[in-house]
Design a protein that fits this description.
alpha/beta; seven-stranded parallel sheet; two-stranded parallel ribbon; 9 helices; about 15% strand; binds nicotinamide-adenine-dinucleotide; binds uridine-5'-diphosphate; NAD(P)-bd_dom_sf
């Protein structure tokens, strides 16, 4: 067993953050979860609240934070388009000021720091699948820019603190990840389709449904993040983390209908502005540097995620099918 560490997880009450806190506590570490509860909630970490090694701090990362830790996972930032576009200025501040504060903290306490970056840094890509050396195609003034450019600037800050202050950094570029604990109103495609299917409501495919994404199950992704944090100091990334198996949104809609046995029909709604047409990670670097690749096929991960949402129906959090 490795030595117990004090680990800070920002955004720790969110979807990915809550699984990460659970995993790190399971390995015997002390975990401080910092969150402003914008999209996260205490409920996501309710099973951890009795653990004496777990601490939850309500705090907005755009303000300075003084704690003593050995490692920092910086996940704070709304990730779903409807949530990050709700207050776009706050989204950019969260990525940029949040990164500056967490890097300043890492510098003061000499902590190792990992940034949850995103495939959105590639924008609507001309290179397929996306490799880490691709610089991306992002519209800097569109409605997605607060997220995409905020995350790009955060990467810049990480690499400047690395060059200038010799910080130990890790930058993970996370591709679409799904699983239990996504909010029913999260707005991202997998939770939308499952909730709609369970309620026999129309499945809302945006545009033609021919756009693609590659979906990674949460357990696989968390394993990739933890492995990346454990790499030698020479490994900074960026490293793509995601499942390279690519689906169109129409294929996804049909798979969700099949797995839920739903009577839903598929309807088409307008495609959001700047919606990337295709996305698939090249995970050669993750395989080489982390000996990591995802294990969970979409069908298997969907079955587990559907079971979670069915639980919300039976416990009254979600309306049952009409
Ligand atoms: P999420 O919205 O469930 O989690 C984000 C968490 O950050 C929430 O708990 C929220 O309350 C908190 N937060 C937001 N702004 C904050 C602030 N200013 N101060 C403190 N806390 C704040 O989303 P998620 O899917 O768990 O994503 C976690 C991280 O992973 C994000 O940084 C996201 O950009 C990144 N990411 C996720 C995906 C994915 O598919 N899930 C893909 C790429 C990148
Ligand atoms: N910071 C923080 N916690 C710390 C140390 C610094 O939140 O433990 C913040 C600090 O408020 C500053 C930012 O991190 O705004 C960047 O810190 P750095 O030392 O790099 O820059 P400086 O303080 O010189 O501007
Ligand atoms: N999408 C859809 N119906 C929905 C929600 C999303 O067809 O109800 C599409 C969306 O237009 C995009 C894809 O699904 O092409 C993935 O969207 P999501 O918001 O999950 O992630 P992102 O676009 O950030 O990758």
């Amino acid at each position: 067993m490795q030595q117990a560490k004090r680990i800070l997880v920002t955004g720790g009450a969110g979807f990915l953050g809550s699984f990460l806190c659970e995993r790190l506590l399971g390995e015997g570490h002390e975990v401080a979860c910092v969150d402003n509860f914008f999209t996260g909630s205490r409920k996501n970490v309710s099973s951890l609240l009795d653990n004496r090694s777990f601490e939850i701090i309500r705090h907005d990362v755009t303000f300075p934070l003084y704690v003593e830790v050995d490692e920092i996972y910086n996940l704070a930032c709304p990730a779903s388009p409807i949530h990050y576009q709700f207050d776009p200025v706050q989204t950019t501040k969260t990525s940029v000021h949040g990164a500056i504060n967490m890097l300043g903290l890492a510098k003061r306490v000499r902590a190792k720091i990992l940034q949850a970056s995103t495939s959105e840094v590639y924008g609507d890509p001309e290179i397929h699948p996306q490799t880490e050396d691709y610089w991306g195609r992002v519209n800097p003034i569109g409605p997605r820019a607060c997220y995409d450019e905020g995350k790009r600037c955060a990467e810049t800050l990480f690499f400047d603190y690395w060059r200038q202050h010799k910080l130990r950094i890790k930058v993970a570029r996370i591709f679409n990840t799904y699983g239990p604990r996504m909010r029913p109103d999260d707005g991202r495609v997998i939770s939308n389709f499952i909730v709609q299917a369970l309620q026999n409501e129309p499945i809302t495919v945006y545009g033609t449904g021919q756009q693609t994404r590659s979906f990674c199950y949460v357990d696989d992704l968390i394993d990739g993040l933890v492995r990346m944090m454990q790499t030698d100091d020479g490994v900074t990334g960026p490293i793509n983390l995601g499942n390279p198996v690519e689906f169109t949104m129409l294929e996804l809609a049909n798979l969700v209908i099949e797995l839920t046995g739903s009577r839903s029909r598929i309807i088409s709604l307008p495609l959001p502005i700047d919606d990337p047409r295709q996305r698939q990670p090249d995970i050669g670097t993750a395989l080489r540097e982390l000996n990591w690749e995802p294990r969970t096929a979409l069908r298997d991960g969907l079955v587990k995620t559907i079971a979670y949402f069915e639980g919300l129906v039976s416990s009254g959090y979600l309306r049952p099918a009409a």
